[in-house]
Design brief:
about 25% helix; about 325 residues; single chain; 3-stranded antiparallel sheet
Length: about 325
């Protein structure tokens, strides 16, 4: 139920801005991290491509530049405020952006009553295929001498005053001078095995459902860039992401917040997502074929701010609680050793 395998892997910084982004120092710091990541992604991707061989090439081939943010007839007041906040942030930070005529957006074919009133083009943002990115990271790690151990960590191992390793479900222990806790929504449970109760905010589970779709041969080619809505109340908004495989695209995503993991996709929110993307983005997707239905659990701290860096116990470093920004911010989440 990890989030990344089911993610659309949008490289969106300004596309994630909301009306609250500039209102508090903590929110501004989170935005600054995302902006650093936007600048870092080209070099980060070059490193992965050079290191991971054919797996890196697949990642490069999946990279799409450009995001269109749609503010349409089905948008609510929150989405409207967030759309305006995006424009304000892009202008304030000198980010290339442009309001474009919705009729010029390739692959956009909504219902008449769901047509966008405004479209914001963010030319430096975009996406990669999350599955290709994970494969490239795994291969790059092997090439750099990282030992990959199959297994599930059940608890952190502590010494007299520090974390000294991790114990797997089979009872074996992996000793370590430093443990980086980056287990997504499962991080809270593991942290509780090494830290006193209440030492870190609990992590909620934001379960999102997404789909991989193959368009039918009779359909038009579809979008060549990311189509998305602004963030909406209690959710992340919809997005349609083109994939490198001919005729394939990614549709996401829902957000069901719970205190613990759930067993699978929720029927109601999945139905709403499929209907919404067909009505608001591209009516021809209704004739597409579902290749894969995916679900992943995003890590959401109670205060909604990420847990990054060392803590009160030596040997334990957090890199989690990033909610929707974890993949995008991954190149800059932890400083190099």
């Amino acid at each position: 139920m990890a989030a990344t395998p089911a993610a659309g892997a949008m490289l969106n910084c300004f596309g994630e801005v909301t009306r609250y982004t500039a209102r508090h120092p903590a929110a501004r710091a989170r935005f600054a991290l995302a902006r650093r990541a936007l600048d870092a992604w080209p070099d980060w991707m070059d490193m992965l491509v050079d290191t991971a061989g054919s797996a890196g090439k697949a990642l490069r081939d999946s990279h799409v530049e450009g995001t269109f943010v749609l503010y349409g007839g089905r948008s609510g007041l929150v989405a409207g405020d967030n759309f305006q906040a995006m424009q304000n942030a892009a202008a304030a930070h000198g980010e290339p952006h442009e309001l474009v005529d919705p009729a010029t957006v390739e692959g956009l074919s909504p219902r008449c009553d769901a047509r966008p009133m405004q479209v914001l083009h963010l030319e430096r943002e975009g996406c990669v295929d999350a599955r290709a990115a994970l494969a490239a990271l795994e291969e790059a790690a092997r090439q750099l001498g990282v030992r990959l151990v199959p297994g599930t960590v059940c608890e952190l191992v502590t010494g007299a005053s520090s974390v000294t390793g991790a114990r797997l479900e089979d009872g074996s222990v992996l000793p370590a001078g430093t443990v980086v806790l980056a287990a997504g929504a499962a991080s809270s449970r593991l942290a509780d095995t090494a830290l006193p109760p209440g030492a870190v905010p609990p992590l909620l589970h934001g379960t999102g459902v997404s789909l991989l779709i193959t368009r039918t041969t009779t359909s038009p080619p579809g979008t060549r860039q990311v189509l998305r809505t602004p963030k909406r109340a209690a959710t992340c908004g919809m997005h349609l992401v083109p994939l490198p495989q001919a005729g394939q695209c990614y549709i996401g995503a829902t957000n069901l917040i719970t205190t613990g993991p759930i067993t699978g996709p929720e029927l109601g929110s999945t139905h709403s997502l499929m209907r919404g993307v067909c009505e608001q983005f591209d009516q021809d997707l209704a004739f597409g074929r579902i290749q894969r239905l995916m679900a992943g659990s995003r890590p959401i701290p109670l205060d909604c701010f990420p847990l990054i860096g060392p803590c009160s116990v030596p040997g334990l470093v957090f890199a989690t609680g990033t909610y929707r920004d974890g993949f995008h911010c991954s190149p800059v989440t932890l400083p190099p050793p």
